Amino acid sequence: MQAKLVAVRRPPICSIPLTKLEWGAVDGSHRKRHRNEQHQSTNDARRPQQGGITENQTREVIRIVEKVVVAEPKTVMGVPPLVDDRVRYVVNFILEHVNSANVEIEAKFGTLIEKSSHVRVINCVPVLCETPISYEANKDTYFKSEVGNDIFAMLNSKLNARVEATEQSSSRVQYLHTQEMDVYWPGKVRETKVRRNTADGSEHYETIRIQSKKRLGDLNVLCPNKYADIRYSASREQDCSIPPNSKPQRCRIKDRISYKYEYLSIDITCVEMQGEATADNTNSFEVEVEIDPSANLYEEVLKYRRQDEASKLFDIACSLVNTVRLLLEE
User: Fold this and answer.
1) How many CB atoms sit inside 10 A of residue 137's CB?
2) Which helix (H) or strand (E) holds 233?
3) Domain ranges, residue 55
4) Which parts of this chain are annotated as the region Disordered (predicted)?
5) Pair (156, 257) in one structural domain
6) Degrees (nearest 5) of the Cα angle 22, 26, 32?
7) Which of 45, 62, 83 is the last residue of a domain?
8) Are residues 105 and 2 in the same domain?
9) Contact 132/89 with Cβ under 8 angstroms?
């Protein structure tokens, strides 16, 4: 029996019904690979068999394609097993909060801490693998969105290696180094300035946007045996102006490197706080993975709600979750 590619299956969670879109997120690639397998099988049949291995035996070998087991598993319901409900939670989170084009979805690396004991939540909850926690539990925790200097350096090195490795590839990892300043004003107004070099060699900061940012919701994920936990956040950003007769409250100077690949932007940032009470060390290191505006996330959400098979929502969510997982590997 010839092995077949098993599409990733998603179980229904919460109140959103399972649609046929979710039973074929990789159907397009499946058909392409299946055709390639048929073509390869035809070519293999023309070649002399070696070592006494028959053509049928060769076809029965279980292949691994991009870490997906190429097999035909069985369940009592006659369908392949349902897998990764944790990705499904992220899909639901996006569907719940992305109701306009100006909503940003990002995954922040940090530590989820229990408020009363001030210890990492994974020390209080007996879980062994990546686990989203309920929204109700958020009130008992807080998230410290920073990583250590050693982790920051490790990710910087790992991602730079990917930039070099994909330089000649059609699927390049793009690299951008920026130095910015966020100035915070009353009313949750943030003015972002970028550092510019002038012809005479001097430097100045130029305002590139003024926005207000409203947090819509968080999905906290415990990651035992990893150096960080994850917070998926949804925020709405709107252009605005600086309140009249107001004074800046604080500012953050950001030295950031962004790595863009397909739907995602991975930002690693060294942050210096100014203008407010801080700990002895005013520098911190932040890591976040953001769904890039080029993904047109709101349009993909609308397609998904219409049960349009062209929707890439699940592909985007899979890419986000799996990129986060890979970055959590030391």
Assistant:
1) 14
2) strand 229-239
3) 1-83
4) 29-56
5) yes
6) 145
7) 83
8) no
9) yes
Domains held by the chain: number: 2
pLDDT of residue 27: 42
Q: Which amino acid is at 190?
A: R
| DSSP H or E segment with residue 272 | strand 264-274
In this structure, are 44 and 145 located in the same domain? no
Crossing angle for the helix pair 85-97 and 313-327, to the nearest 10 degrees: 120
Residue with tokens 């058909």: 31
Helices 297-305, 313-327: axis angle to 10 degrees equals 130
Domain's final residue, options 29, 50, 83: 83
Residue type, 145: S
Mean pLDDT of successive 10-residue segments in the chain (330 residues)? 38 42 44 46 46 48 41 70 82 96 97 94 90 90 94 94 92 93 93 88 89 94 95 96 92 94 95 69 89 96 94 94 94
Dist. CA 45–CA 56, nearest whole Å: 10
Name the pTM for this structure. 0.75
- Residues 291 and 166 placed together within one structural domain of the fold: yes
- Token pair in block for residue 46: 């023309």
What pLDDT does 73 receive? 61
In whole angstroms, give the CA distance from residue 254 to residue 99: 30
Output helix, strand, coil percentages for the chain, rounded to the nearest 5: 30, 35, 40
